[in-house]
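tool_call: predict_structure(chain=1)
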Amino acid sequence: MYQGLHYDPDNIIEEDGGDISQEDCWAVIQTFFNDKGLVRQQLDSFDEFVQNTMQEIVDENRNLVLQTIQGSGSEGDQAVCKLIASLGLNL
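tool_result:
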């Protein structure tokens, strides 16, 4: 994933031999939350979901087909109700 880094559960070690300690990792995390704060990070994540991810979900599932089958089970006694819903704007 990251060039030059290998995963080691006890330590992250760069190819050149320089170690990134657990304390270094916690320092980065602490700095992130000091700058952003826990609530700001959560709000930014939610905003990203609403502004981008939700639209991607709608785009990928633009046409929905809802279908129900009613009846006793034998083919002659069944009724099929089918609804096709299209999401998004038609400009």
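agent: Confidence is low (pLDDT under 50) at residues 1-7. Proceeding to next step.
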